[in-house]
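Changelog note: in this version the structure field was regenerated for every chain. One regenerated record is shown below for reference.
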Amino acid sequence: MTLLTFIYLIAGLVLLVAGAEVLVRGAAKLAAQFGIPPLIIGLTVVAFGTSAPETAVSVQAALNGSGDLAIGNVLGSNIANVLLILGLTALIAPLIVSRQLIRLDVPIMIGASLLTFALAWDGHLSRLDGALLFACVLAYSAFLIVSSRQDKATNDEDEFAKEFGLHDRPKPYAWLINLALIGVGLVLLVGGSNFLVEGAVSLARALGLSELVIGLTVVAIGTSLPELATSLLAALKGERDIAVGNIVGSNIFNLLCVLGLAALVSPLPISISPNALAFDFPVMITVAVACLPIFFSGYRINRWEGLLFLAYYLAYTLYLALFASGRPLAETFADAMLGYVLPLTGVTLLVIAGRAWHRQRLA
């Protein structure tokens, strides 16, 4: 393992974060100049933009034949988005959850997780699978645009407009500047993805780890930095819908758009490792399902729930460390988590949600 590997990793992460920020700013302001409402920009441009690092890395990995890295990046990002980022955000300030997220977006996230798992069950994602996933994200985006036009939420519009300066008076030739920002953002994303994939593959080989483990940890956390920054800043500013909606929307786009594009451009079907099917996919689905009762119980994420998320992420990371070291304890740990801890937590959360629902009916 050389110094150049770490330079590639750090440079790749910096370029990805900077590229995503520049791309989102330019695209959001350009869309606003064409009269697109701030809420629609937030639901589409911002959601795509915060998933841009995952898209760039997974597509580049698929083109390079590193399928495990592409899969690990998406699975690890989705797990980290909920357990790590929402956990940290809720510790800073308890988060209010909108009813639309509970009734629509979280069920869609669960459905997207189950659909991806079903398509991957045969051990690979083909171009046909990728086309189906990408068609779903197009349908989801169209639905968001139509529904937001019919039911405009002023508070959401104000939050997105304030965050991205969409109500600012445009300067002369502003559209050229915004086009340039989009171009610069894309260049940074492509360059950053090349550096990060190269560094991640070199690190995996040097440490004797699988590309899946590197994708689930280093690459996943790195490409989730835009979501982390967006949600933490939104929580500090009191922008509740951006803080939580950003995570749920990003997870949906990661599964449908990122994996869809990666499978479409890959020269060969993307292979899915048996360990990913046996453990990482079930964990991702469990995390998505766990959002429903937690979000439903009082329509908020309390600090203790954020702490619970963080504890599970630490446990998941511990399993990856044990698995990477090849210790027999990893299998026992995985059986305990899947067979006892997660089901017990699920029952507990369902009881909490049931009591909250009963109290709401009596109120």
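Spot check on this record: The chain has one domain: 3-362. Residues 134 and 225 are 24 Å apart (CA to CA).
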